[in-house]
Amino acid sequence: MHNNNRIHDPERTSEPNLFDFMPKNVWREVYRGRWRELRPVQKAEFVVEIVFFTLFLGGFAYNAYIQDGHWLSLLLSFGVVWLILGAFFYLLTRFIR
Length: 97
What we know:
Layout: H1 26-31, H2 40-66, H3 71-95
């Protein structure tokens, strides 16, 4: 019986180091317009996150505001959130390049 010991095998090639792989931040890549460069798994991850957050916020809005008929409070709260997010992303794109 022949023992093929991998440590002393002269034909052994170096194996890839799994810790050298740097995963892409999907949100950053989509923000920078690199949707086509993402792998299908990363695209699916992004879509699942968007659907989850949409359903979460929709469920919250329905239970907290729409069910009781407080439409104006819903519009004002989303307006304030969008203003804050807009200012944040404006500053982010202005000072970080």
